[in-house]
Amino acid sequence: MMGRREVWSLLLLLASSAVALQSIGHGTKKGSQIPEARAAIDRKNFIAAVASAVPAVGMGVALGGFPQRAFARGRATLDQAYDRYSPRITAGGEFFKRDLRALVEKSDWNGIKLALAEPPKKTKEDRAKADGGIADRAAQAGGFSDSRVLVACDLYAAAFSDSSISTKTRKMKVHVDEMRTIITEMQQTAKIALGEESAGGGLFGLGAKKPSPGELAKKMRDLYVAGGNAYNKYIFEANAELALDFKKLPYL
């Protein structure tokens, strides 16, 4: 269970990161498709939401060369898991706060779709290659795709468990699931903006009405802020009570 100091540290961190993330709609170049709008989450409501959520937070290699989801793998593998997955997690965070943010600011819908894209399926041409096309397909995965980042987050979380799933692992996985849901919504929003999918009457709460470019841009900004907050909460749980010989993972 978190002590009072840990809880306040989390609240202060998330509040400051929310302010930074929410600034994506401000100071954009003249003519940008993103309309000036108030921040998606105001500080007072954000702090209240996090404060109420903190006590409740509990709970091989894949196609393209990325790790698949797995359950607990044991504390003996923590060193290996850290060395293997922390670089992916850290690189994903860097991509999120720099590259993905720039795409969201510009409403670059195709760029956003590619940034979150999964590696392509194996083809006949891939089978003819020495490595089965793994390297080429891995290179086509988006910088913050599920395969590149979120699955690595899952496996790193699992390394903090033995034969049964630990509280720490559960807490970390809660935020991985949160990020996964947000990324799915971001992908869908980008595809709607590109005309590849219809709004379906539910995603934007607008019934059968086709969302405007401004509504799509605001939705994407809101999702970006939520995704950044979820990532930072994951990092907080990952770093909590981490042995001193491990370098703590950086926040956004």
Key terms for this structure?
57% helix; 252 residues; mainly alpha; 9 helices
Walk me through this protein's architecture.
With 252 residues, the protein is an all-alpha fold. The chain is built from 9 helices and no strands. The protein has helices at residues 4-22, 43-53, 78-106, 109-115, 124-127, 134-139, 146-158, 167-193, 213-239. Helix 3 (78-106) packs antiparallel against helix 9 (213-239). The longest helix has 29 residues, at 78-106. It is globular and about 50 Å long. Mean pLDDT is 77; it is low at 27-44 and 46-74.
Strand percentage: under 5%
Distance between the termini: 25 Å
Task: Report helical residue fraction.
Answer: 55-70%
Order of helices and strands: HHHHHHHHH
Radius of gyration: 19 Å
Count of DSSP helices? 9
Describe what is shown at a glance.
The chain has 252 residues and is mostly helical. It has nine helices and no strands.
Draw up the topology in text.
Blueprint: H1 4-22, H2 43-53, H3 78-106, H4 109-115, H5 124-127, H6 134-139, H7 146-158, H8 167-193, H9 213-239
Helix pairs in contact: 1-2, 1-9, 3-7, 3-9, 4-8, 7-8, 8-9
